[in-house]
Write a structure and sequence with these properties.
The protein is an alpha/beta fold and 414 residues long. It is built from 13 helices and eleven strands.
């Protein structure tokens, strides 16, 4: 395995970039499944504002790294406030000289991590905080928002909205096309949900931990054919933060650094009629760039964290990243391959299907990848290689919109 790639700059020039600290906020498992089990602590978590979740996650990530907020000169934030990074920076008491508010859906955080790594490598920032928090579940309960997922009554999307073309329906159409073209079955898609739940069972921070079976998935209420309820992500509150630093700051860290070895970004479409092939996501572009950038191949990777708002996302992203050939994703996800102790552990925290999904989940992928690489996942869910050693390489790949955007980041231990 070419672990020596971690000795290179993330962009082969300038400074290397490391993940110095990661953290979740308390509301990562927001609230109980039913109000009958609510307690005071849960009530406080559900009452927390998105700003408060940002602050808690940021404080914890800084503490994890052993850094003070005065050292933070870069901030990446999206999805909150009229002037997203400015409002969040003010709330956190920061005055960054480098900011990013790129918002491309669930891929936002991998794209932002790539931007931040570029900035640090080029000397435009030394310490960049990526931070996110959202309370969609609590907002829906309190009727502060609706569950409308149609998006875009104006612009190009207006031509699809009258036909009820919701976000879920767009993913369902893509899944149906893959089934038609390659023979992928509902049972194979269900395997993704079953294995995600099995991984979540060992994660005390996961929202859903009770076991499920393929029959449970298939017999659930239909949401958008072929997706039943358990094919779809949960709705939770939550937040997290990731702190990136330049290599010359690593000696002062409180934890082992995890290096950003390579990254890639790509966009595809917003209007479904402009998507050339429903069976190919933009991860086919971002993944190829990230692996080439890192000097590794998919076969070198020990574990993968993949955006999974729906089961089909996991399957097709695995294909597009090169873990299996196009059309072979259905067979690839069977036989427990995605479990913590499987051939390719995927979404080891339980993913968006079982652990948490407060909206733009991409930052959680980076948190889990780093925890696994540092050997901090905990008893019963820490991934180990066949020889018992800790994993060396991980990939985090986020998807935004309805396969509209993709960001892929390769991470490794030094």
């Amino acid at each position: 395995m070419p672990v020596a790639a971690s000795a290179r700059s993330p962009h082969h020039t300038g400074r290397r970039v490391a993940v110095a600290g990661v953290a979740l906020c308390d509301a990562g498992t927001t609230g109980p499944a039913s109000t009958e089990t609510a307690d005071a602590e849960t009530a406080r978590a559900e009452a927390a504002t998105p700003y408060a979740l940002h602050a808690q996650a940021a404080r914890r990530a800084l503490a994890d790294a052993g850094c003070d907020r005065s050292q933070v000169d870069g901030l990446a934030s999206a999805g909150l406030g009229t002037l997203a990074p400015v409002e969040v920076a003010e709330y956190l008491g920061l005055r960054p000289t480098w900011v990013d508010s790129t918002s491309v859906g669930g891929a936002t955080w991998e794209v932002m991590a790539a931007h931040a790594a570029d900035a640090i490598a080029q000397g435009r920032a030394d310490t960049v905080l990526l931070v996110y928090g959202a309370t969609p579940r609590a907002d829906l309960k309190a009727r502060r928002r609706t569950a409308d997922l149609s998006f875009g009554a104006r612009g190009p999307l207006q031509f699809e909205v009258p036909y009820g073309h919701t976000l879920i329906a767009k993913y369902a159409m893509a899944a149906r096309r893959h089934m038609h073209q390659y023979g992928t079955t509902p049972e194979q898609l269900a395997q993704v949900a079953v294995q995600a739940r099995a991984n979540a069972a060992a994660n005390p921070e996961a929202f859903r931990r009770e076991p499920i079976t393929v029959d449970d998935v298939l017999s659930g209420p239909m949401i958008a054919d072929p997706f039943t309820k358990l094919h779809c992500c949960i709705r939770s509150d939550g937040g997290c933060a990731v702190l990136l630093v330049a290599e010359d700051r690593v000696a002062d860290l409180a934890t082992e650094p995890v290096w950003i070895l390579g990254s890639g970004t790509a966009v595809s479409h917003t209007t479904m009629s402009e998507w050339e092939d429903f069976t190919v996501s933009p991860a086919a572009v971002s993944g190829r760039a990230a692996f080439a950038h890192a000097g590794v191949t998919p076969h070198d990777i020990d574990l993968a964290q993949i955006y999974d708002a729906f089961t089909y996302m996991t399957l097709v992203t695995l294909e597009d990243l090169g873990f299996c050939a196009k059309g072979e994703g259905g067979a690839f996800v069977q036989d427990g391959r995605l479990l913590r102790d499987g051939a390719l552990p995927v979404n080891t925290d339980g993913g968006g299907l079982s652990a948490c999904h407060p909206g733009m989940r991409g930052l959680f992928l980076l948190v889990e990848a780093v925890r696994q690489l540092r050997g901090e996942a905990g008893e019963g869910r820490q991934v180990r290689r066949r020889d018992g050693t800790l994993p060396e390489l991980a990939v985090a790949s986020g998807t935004g919109g309805w396969f509209c955007s993709s960001g892929t980041v390769v991470l490794g231990r030094g």
